[in-house]
Design goal:
Blueprint lengths: L1 H6 L3 H17 L3 H10 L8 E3 L11 E3 L7 H17 L4 H16 L3 E8 L2 E11 L2 E10 L8 H10 L3 E3 L12 H6 L3 E9 L2 E10 L8 H34 L5 H6 L13 E13 L2 H8 L1 H21 L3 E6 L2 E6 L3 H24 L7 E17 L2 E7 L1 H16 L3 E4 H4 L10 E8 L7 E6 L8 H19 L3 H14 L4 H16 L8 E3 L4
Parallel strand pairs: 12-14, 15-17
Antiparallel strand pairs: 1-2, 3-4, 3-8, 4-5, 6-7, 7-8, 9-11, 9-12, 10-11, 12-13, 14-16, 15-16
Helix pairs in contact: 2-3, 2-4, 4-5, 4-8, 5-8, 10-11, 11-12, 15-16, 16-17
């Protein structure tokens, strides 16, 4: 800043920046920079410095060693500029930066209204405005093209941008050059100060100030003060935009690598991830799949398929997030979600997903789509989160038998005619199972698996039945299953028959009753322990 102000023939302002730089270089032991500074600006480091503000001899002012004098108003301006610059440079949040910046400009220039314009791509936009209404400052962030904004002088702004020079007008309504401006004619505008902010030889912003209380409110001295601030404003805006853009970029990357995934890997940002980074965690895995989707997509075509999938995922993904999970992967018509906080979170999410399905179906039917059905499977346990690939292309992944088994469980919904199945690992962690409608479905060994597991169905309450009625039915069903598992197929068959009289549409009850009848005809297997071996995924 000091160098820049020296080049702009503003040594008074430069002095304070250079001295401040010298102080910090010395504080942090930067001896080489200290020496360079002393050699380049030796006059800045005498014991006492007086800035001669008497310009009667036509000079820019001189530095005089060993002379004490009172602080003049210009000295105070410089001090206020430094203080203001430090305030602006210390702010990185864009909205707050604009608010602080416009307040400082208004205070230093004595303006009623301060408007900031910024060039975005090829358009000049009104970005922020501070106005004083009945003694109260009102600040607003805007994003309006200057062509559409009527409360500003288009001619003054245009000239200042083209010439890259500040414009100071004592009484705009009587000014020959600008009196025909529609805004000035309409408002009878008095004092205007328009200052282009130049950064790297380009006009990147414009400060537009008005004071309609008095004529001649803005002086050339005010222009000098604001010019001092302008370089810091330009730098701070650039930094703030950079940070804002980086923040948006990180938010965008989280759509590809979820933030919870980074947290589990103990990484702050995606930039910290390297190939092979991994973490072992306990979590629940949820798989959700649209039934018969291949047939559906063939019938409706590519464009409608894409719309249906996006609409479906936009409905289900927020439900997953609300229940402390995150989508790890979309694969065609399927969703894989992870729940690291609590296994029951996955169950709650699945119930809510199924509850949201009827409303979703109603919406897509209005647009000519056929109803869809979904199957959900949930498993839980230890899993390894890992980044796979190479330096040019990486992907976050979950490597675990837990995930594979969850996928198998989801597929078993087709066998049982169910909608939501969970493993025994998940069921055993539910502290209050009586709050749910859950029943055992089978003891099964999934295809490709050596260990058998118990499967449980999480039921949705049918419209025609109440909770207690369904609870009583579940108890009767579980009595039948206990006979079945013990190999007492005759007793099991009788109870399953009773179940089906009460609930004829129970696909699980019908399946197990048929098995009982098969075993009664063929005899009980010698190695029977209640386990069914699934032959399909």
């Amino acid at each position: 800043a000091g160098n820049l102000l020296m080049e702009q023939k503003l040594p008074h302002a430069a002095l304070y920046y250079i001295r401040e730089a010298y102080y910090y270089y010395r504080r942090y032991g930067m001896t080489v920079k200290l020496k360079l500074l002393e050699n380049r600006y030796p006059h800045c480091f005498v014991d006492q410095v007086h800035i001669n503000t008497d310009h009667s001899n036509g000079g820019e002012g001189a530095y005089e060693s060993g002379v004490k004098t009172s602080i003049t108003s210009l000295n105070l301006d410089f001090l206020s500029v430094i203080k203001a610059s430090q305030t602006i440079s210390g702010e990185i949040v864009l909205d707050k930066l604009f608010e602080k910046m416009l307040h400082i400009v208004a205070e230093n220039a004595g303006a009623e209204t301060v408007i900031f314009l910024e060039k975005k791509q090829d358009n000049w936009m009104v970005t922020a405005i501070l106005s004083n209404r009945e003694g109260i400052d009102v600040f607003n962030m805007l994003d309006i093209s200057i062509k559409e904004y009527r409360n500003i002088s288009q001619q003054v702004i245009g000239y200042s941008i083209r010439s890259t020079e500040p414009v100071v007008i004592s009484n705009a309504a009587e000014n020959e050059q600008y009196s025909d401006d529609p805004y000035i004619q309409r408002m009878g505008t008095k004092s205007i100060l328009c200052l282009p902010i130049v950064h790297m030889e380009k006009v990147t912003g414009v400060l537009y100030l008005e004071n309609n209380l008095v004529v001649g409110a803005f002086t050339r001295d005010r222009v000098t003060v604001l010019t001092m601030l302008a370089s810091q404003i330009a730098i701070s805006l650039q930094n703030s935009h950079y940070l804002d853009n980086m923040s948006r970029l990180y938010r965008s990357t989280e759509r590809f690598v979820p933030k919870p995934f980074l947290n589990l890997l103990k990484k702050e940002t995606i930039e910290d991830i390297k190939v092979g980074d991994s973490a072992e965690v306990n979590l629940a895995t949820l798989f959700a799949d649209i039934r018969n989707f291949t047939t559906i997509s063939e019938e409706i075509g590519t464009e409608k398929t894409a719309f249906l999938l996006n609409a479906y995922m936009q409905t289900m993904s927020p439900i997953i997030r609300r229940n402390h999970g995150f989508v790890s992967q979309f694969f065609g018509d399927g969703i894989m979600a992870l729940f690291p906080r609590n296994y029951v979170d996955a169950v709650d999410a699945a119930i809510q997903m199924r509850a949201a399905l009827p409303e979703f179906i109603s919406k897509i039917e209005e647009q000519g789509y056929e109803p869809i059905a979904i199957g959900i499977g949930i498993n839980a346990g230890s899993a390894m989160l890992i980044t796979l690939g190479e330096e040019e292309r990486m992907e976050s992944s979950v490597v675990s038998d837990v995930v594979n088994t969850a996928s198998r469980i989801e597929g078993l919904n087709k066998l049982y005619g169910t909608g939501l199945l969970i493993s025994d690992r998940v069921f055993e962690t539910i502290q209050n199972p009586e709050q749910y409608l859950i029943r055992i479905v089978d003891k099964v060994k999934a295809k490709g698996k050596k260990q058998a597991m118990r499967l449980y169905e999480v039921l949705t309450l049918p419209p025609e039945k109440d909770f207690l009625e369904m609870r009583d039915y579940i108890n009767l069903f579980q009595k039948a299953f206990a006979f079945y598992e013990a190999g007492e197929f005759k007793a099991a068959n009788e109870v399953f028959t009773t179940c089906l009289l009460r609930y004829p549409d129970d696909s699980v009850g019908l399946l197990l009753k048929n098995r009982c009848e098969t075993f009664l005809a063929s005899g009980t297997p010698n190695d029977w322990d209640g386990t069914y071996v699934a032959l399909e995924k």
